[in-house]
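Intended use. Records like the one below are meant for learning the mapping from a protein sequence to its folded structure. Do not use them to infer anything beyond what is encoded.
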Amino acid sequence: MGNEQYDFLLNISEAEQLLFDVLHALEKTSVDPRERRIVWPDGARLCIEDTARRIHAESGGPVDRIQSHVVNWLAAGYVPEGLDEQQMEEFEQLIEEWIAPYEDLN
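Structure written out for the chain above:
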């Protein structure tokens, strides 16, 4: 039974590390919700799936979990700067439409 508890704690640690890796990778990105792209500092404009694969290549984490973290980041973690209230409402609506197909997968 002690091993199960250790494995559980190890899995939590791995899950937390993966979340950290995803958030760190997305730290310097921006979002183009009209084109449904995450814009990387190197100019790459990637969809959610390609973003997950890019982060997977660096972290080695499971692509499906990375994709879930990316969707959650779009839903709640990314906050654009310099938008007025109306622009922010439009931004949020575009994000909701973009991530809606993924929410059933989470």
